[in-house]
Amino acid sequence: xxxxxxxxxxxxxxxxxxxxxxxxxxxxxxxxxxxxxxxxxxxxxxxxxxxxxxxxxxxxxxxxxxxxxxxxxxxxxxxxxxxxxxxxxxxxxxxxxxxxxxxxxxxxxxxxxxxxxxxxxxxxxxxxxxxxxxxxxxxxxxxxxxxxxxxxxxxxxxxxxxxxxxxxxxxxxxxxxxxxxxxxxxxxxxxxxxxxxxxxxxxxxxxxxxxxxxxxxxxxxxxxxxxxxxxxxxxxxxxxxxxxxxxxxxxxxxxx
Length: 256
Description:
By secondary structure, the chain is an alpha/beta fold. It has helices at 3-9, 29-44, 65-68, 73-82, 119-136, 194-208, 220-223, 229-240, 252-255, and strands at residues 17-23, 51-55, 60-63, 86-89, 97-99, 103-111, 141-143, 157-160, 168-179, 182-190, 245-249. The protein is globular, with a radius of gyration of 17 Å.
């Protein structure tokens, strides 16, 4: 994703800054989701420039709007709580996705006078950027939906088992919210401890009556056991240097 293309197609202008805010402590399951929308509100009103927020969330199952309208939704919520996950309904589309402190959430927020421009292209471009970040630390990652994946999406990022190439697992899900004056692009990378995520998704999808293949749920360190969230976080920030001039910010300043 070259700076020239960003400038020509309505993204960041050449040498524009992208401020990285590393959130060290969760604001709570609901608080973390709500704060992303607060940052988008600030961006569209001119109070916040292009920003990247990185954090490790509390155990959460984020259901889509369609999930909340299914007859089994109440049972799905109960199943999540029994397994130690907080059930929430997110503003973006898609189906249920689960995450915990072994995952990395990336909220990319930018003000833009015509935010709908290139909305679909962002899925492809940021999907490839994040897949590249995983490849840089040794994961065989690529963009594209795999059969039976949870919260299916055309631009999901999956990883491939080097010893069993036919076995592919979903590693990154992405979602986007576009409003007048700005956009929010959120990504979740599952890095560590895939077992609880697979368990809560199995319980949730069963309650909702949705088909999926639990074998598609995994973590990056299922493929490379030495990987941890910090390593992947650093790789993501490095990958974003191809998109903009990255500077470090103080997350506490956003809470003032």
